[in-house]
Amino acid sequence: MSLNEKQVESGDLIPSLDRSTDEVAWDLYRKAIRFGTWDPAAIDLSQDKADFESLDPDLQGYLIHFCTGFLDAEENVALKFCPWIMLGSSTEQQAFLSTQLLEEFKHTEFFMRYFKEVFGKERIPGVKNIVQQKLDDRVKKMLAALEQGPGDREAALVEGLTHYQGIIEGVQAMTGYEVFEAVYGSKGLLPGLAEGFARIKEDEGRHVGFGLRMLKLFARNPVHAKRIRAVYDDYLPYILIRYDQPVVVNGKEYPTPPEVRGRERLTKMFERRLKDIFGKPAAV
Ligand SMILES: [Fe+2]
Ligand SMILES: [Fe+2]
């Protein structure tokens, strides 16, 4: 396990508050340049194809549904990420955030390849993620804020960081890695997907680490603290139903494996993120 993976699991993701945000952003930018160089096209997926073909049909159906959720999410955030870069308030911050944009496209590429080479089919339609759908409005608000004064820009950035780094990456994606591990990875299945997730998690360590550090700093201002908490609270009902939806692949419904325990994992991750930002356990 790399240091980064350990940090992701322990929740100890947040770079020090002692240095300035620009120093941290530049350090993460340099880390992305030097270490974020994995190639989604280079991961060996041959064993995954064999594993998938011999999987129980229920676990095959669930895997297609699960990976569709990841592909949809990675692609959606990649396509909509530019306003987060544009609202960065310095060259250093924008430089770091630009590495995140490229990395989200790399994650998208990995899952596109997985569908083509392992499943031999397209992603399925209709996997619901309301928190992702809400990015459409978020992007509009953030772009509008670019035309406004510094206070409005900062408020839009705080809400954008909460929505994206704080919830989509910090709660939903992190829970997804746990679900993969519980259902497939811990059984030694799908080593290519396990490696893809390990690489993605390293990238996410930088993304979530930077985002949570910003939120922790912004939360020192009571107006921003209220704003951050309101976004978490507004989205909590949508977050919790993520794994409760029916799993339907090509018109056939599949059971959700008992190891998923979506609601329980999501609730824990939600509480962990609030603790990261506000420094105390949250009442959910
Ligand atoms: Fe990603
Ligand atoms: Fe990310």
Description:
By secondary structure, the chain is mainly α. It has one domain (22-28, 42-278): Ribonucleotide Reductase, subunit A (Orthogonal Bundle), CATH 1.10.620.20. The protein is 71% helix and 2% strand. The chain has 12 helices and 2 strands; from the N terminus they run αααααααααααββα. The chain has helices spanning 3-10, 21-35, 46-54, 57-80, 82-86, 91-119, 130-133, 135-145, 150-183, 191-218, 222-240, 262-278, and strands at 247-249, 252-254. It has a two-stranded antiparallel sheet with strand order 1-2. β1 (247-249) and β2 form a beta hairpin. α2 packs parallel to α6 (91-119) and α9 packs antiparallel against α10 (191-218). The two termini are 31 Å apart. Bound molecules: fe (ii) ion (2 copies). One fe (ii) ion (FE2) binds next to α6. One of its GO terms (biological process) is deoxyribonucleotide biosynthetic process. Its cofactor is Fe cation. One of its GO terms (molecular function) is oxidoreductase activity.
Concise summary:
One of its GO terms (biological process) is deoxyribonucleotide biosynthetic process. The chain is mostly helical.
